[in-house]
Amino acid sequence: MKQPFLLIYLIALFSVSCAEKPKSKPNILFLFADDQRADALGIAGNNILKTPNIDQLAIAGTRFSNAYVMGGNHGAICAASRAMMLSGKSLFHVLDKLEGEETMPMYFAKQGYETFGTGKWHNEKEVFEASFQKGENVFLGGMADHFSIAVRDLQVDGKLSEATKKGYSTDLFTNVTKDFLNDYAKSDQQNPFFAYVSFTVPHDPYSPKFGYINRYDTAKIPLPENFLGLHPFEFDQLNVRDENLTGWPRQPEIVKEILSDYYSLITHLDDQVGELIATLKDNGLYDNTIIVYAADNGLAIGSHGLLGKQNLYEHSTKVPIIITGPGIPKDQLSDALVYLYDLYPTLVNLAGLTAPEGIDGKDLVPILRSREKEVRPTLFTAYRHTVRAIRKGNWKLIRYPERDFTQLFNLKVDPFELNNLAELEPDKVDELQRLLESAQKSAGDTVAWTAKVILPMEYDHTKIERKPDQWQPEYTLKKYFDSSKKD
C-alpha cells in the first residue's frame, strides 16, 4: 500500500523541481543599421517614412530618444562607432581599432553563448574571426554596391573565406540569419545564441532594390526643417566622402531625391526586420529573445547644408536605440543621455552575466527598470581635432577650436539647432565650457579649447571639387553624378 503513495510523492517532487528550474538565459538578436538618423523612423515622428516592424519593436519594448554615437577620429565614423559599441569603450580609449579588445560577442561566447555574425564588419578581419563561432555573408569594409556586395563565410578552420559577390546586401544578410535561426530551432538549444546582423543600408550608395525605387514620391517629401543650401562656415573638409554626393549649393529637388532613395532603403530594411521577427515567432524563439535595434550614426541629408555624418549636429550624432524582449517594459520612452557603447554592459546584465571589467559603457538596466532616470548628467561628442560638443539637459554647446567659434543651442525650443545663442548667453557658455573641458580630461582628449593657428571660416563653394567613388552603381551615377544634371 505504501508504494503508490511513494510514487505519487516522487512525481510531485519531480514536478516541483521542474517548475522551479530557472529559465534559460535569453537569446540576443542584435540588428544594426548603417547611417540611419534617429528621426528616420515612423515612431520617431517621421510621417512620410513607413517602418511598421521597427515601430512595433519600440511598442513592444523601450526606445531611447537621446542616444548618440560619441564621434569619430576620421571621416569614416562607422569604424569608430562600431569599435566603441563592440568593445564598450569610449572613442579615445579604442578609436577605430579592436585588436587586443574583448568584443561583446567574444564575451558572450565565453559565457556559453553560440555566436553568429553577418553583414558589415568595418574593423579588423582577425577580430571578426575571434568574435564569432559562425558567420556567413560577412562584408569587410565601409561601403559597397548594394546590388553586388563582396561577402565571405566563416570556414571550419575559423578563418573567413575569399570574397564572393552575390545578390542585394539587405536580403543576403537577412536570409543567412533566417537560416541560422531555423537551424538553431532544430538543434538541442543547449546554449543561447547571440546573433549580430549588421546591415549596410541606408548608407549610400542611395540605390534601393528594384521594387522599392520610387516608393516615396519626392513631391510629398518635406525638406529637413534645418535645410540649407550651404553650411554657413567652413570647419573641416566640406567635401569629405558623403558630402560629395551632390554639388554646392544643395538643391532642394536633389535632396528630396536622396531622401526618397534613403527612405526606400529603410523600408526594405524594415521589411526584412519583419521577416526576422516572424522567423523567431515561427520557431518559438521570440518570447525568450532580446532584440536590439540600433544604428552606428546619423546623417545630415541636407540639414545645415551638409549631407554626411562628419559633424556634431543632432542629425548626425543621434541614433535610434530600441530594446525589447523578456523583462523589458513595453511602450516605454526614455530621454536619458546614452551612448551606443552602453549596449554592451546593458545586454550583459539583461542576460544575467557578470559585468565585464575595463569598459566605459554604462548599464542601462536601471533605466529600463525605472529605478533611475539617467546614467550620466552630460554627454560629450567629438569629431577629429576640429569639433567638440557637450550636452547637459536641453543645452548644447559646439566648439570649433580651429575657428575659435562657439555655437550654443537650447534644444527644447530649437531642436533643429538654427539659433546660435552663444553671444546672448555668455554665462551658459562658460558653464558648458567647463563641463566640456572636464569631459575631455576624463575621456583622455587633449584638444584645446582654442587651436594655436586660427583658420578662416569663409570659403568659396564654387571651388569645392566632387567626384564619385568606386562603389557607386550605375543607378547612382546616372542620378547624382550625370554631368548633364544640374547640381
Question: How is this structure best described in words?
Answer:
The strands form 3 sheets. Strands 1, 2, 4, 5, 8, 9, 10, 11 and 12 form a 9-stranded mixed beta sheet that branches. It is built from 13 helices and 16 strands. The protein has 2 domains: 25-376, Alkaline Phosphatase, subunit A, CATH 3.40.720.10; 385-456, 2-Layer Sandwich (Arylsulfatase, C-terminal domain), CATH 3.30.1120. 47% of the residues are buried. The longest helix is centred in the middle third of the chain and has 31 residues, at 252-282. It is globular, with a radius of gyration of 24 Å. The model is unreliable at 1-22 (pLDDT under 50). With 487 residues, it is of the alpha/beta class. The chain has helices spanning 2-19, 52-59, 77-87, 91-94, 104-110, 125-131, 169-186, 252-282, 314-317, 343-350, 365-368, 426-443, 474-481; strands spanning 27-34, 61-68, 71-72, 114-121, 134-140, 150-151, 164-165, 193-202, 289-295, 318-324, 332-334, 338-339, 378-383, 387-392, 395-400, 405-410.
Task: Walk me through the topology.
Layout: H1 2-19, E1 27-34, H2 52-59, E2 61-68, E3 71-72, H3 77-87, H4 91-94, H5 104-110, E4 114-121, H6 125-131, E5 134-140, E6 150-151, E7 164-165, H7 169-186, E8 193-202, H8 252-282, E9 289-295, H9 314-317, E10 318-324, E11 332-334, E12 338-339, H10 343-350, H11 365-368, E13 378-383, E14 387-392, E15 395-400, E16 405-410, H12 426-443, H13 474-481
Parallel strand pairs: 1-8, 1-9, 2-11, 2-12, 3-13, 4-5, 4-8
Antiparallel strand pairs: 2-10, 6-7, 9-10, 13-14, 14-15, 15-16
Helix pairs in contact: 7-8
